[in-house]
Design goal:
Blueprint (H helix, E strand, L loop, with lengths): L5 H25 L3 H22 L3 H25 L23 H4 L4 E4 L14 E5 L4 H29 L24
Antiparallel strand pairs: 1-2
Helix pairs in contact: 1-2, 1-5, 2-3, 3-5
């Protein structure tokens, strides 16, 4: 096995997916966006199972990872369309928070270079309320930051999909079988017949 084999590259891509999913999960928790939190959780589980399949030469786990990558690409395209207001979707809807809270993307108030102003109100002097904060200007608007997150996930996922297809094609069916009861046959030692 070379140092730049497809299997090693897929392991690297899975690790990169885990890191970016964890980063995305943190910011979704900060914004109380419950649908992405659940989807990111399932994504993390599927990537870990895919990573296990690649390391242990289990083609079924890698195929499951492949199928999840198709769903993950669809989710990221949906989120991109939502934030760009494409296809009748609106970034101002509470689809991502599942209608539970009025919170939006964490990046809306805390993006790079954002200047915010707290509106004066008699009853809310000492409490932080997102409805009473107005963002005046940002270096990069929040919807573009969210779309950049989706594009990064899409690129990593598509690369992972391509490498996983190749890795599955190199695994043999014998690599994915395990005999709990039978005898152990070591391929480098000839079997003795009496």
């Amino acid at each position: 096995m070379g140092c730049c084999s497809a299997r090693c590259m897929l392991i690297l891509l899975c690790c990169l997916q885990l890191i970016t999913a964890l980063e995305r999960q943190v910011f979704d928790f900060l914004g109380y966006q419950w649908a992405p939190i659940m989807i990111n959780f399932f994504h993390t589980i599927m990537v870990i199972l895919g990573l296990f399949g690649v390391i242990q030469y289990r083609s079924r786990y890698v195929i499951m990872y492949l199928l999840w990558m198709l769903l993950w690409v669809g989710w990221n395209v949906f989120v991109s369309c939502l934030y760009l207001d494409l296809g009748g979707l609106s970034k101002d809807s509470d689809i991502l928070s599942l209608g539970v809270s009025s919170h939006r993307s964490w990046w809306k108030d805390n993006g790079p270079g954002c200047e915010s102003e707290v509106l004066p109100s008699a009853g809310w002097h000492n409490q932080q309320n997102p409805e009473l904060t107005t963002v005046l200007s940002c270096w990069l608007e929040y919807q573009y930051i969210e779309v950049l997150h989706c594009i990064a996930q899409l690129l990593i996922s598509l690369l992972g999909f391509v490498y996983a297809c190749y890795v599955v094609s190199t695994f043999s069916d014998e690599d994915d079988s395990f005999n709990f009861i039978g005898e152990f046959h070591h391929p480098s030692k000839p079997s003795l017949l009496f």
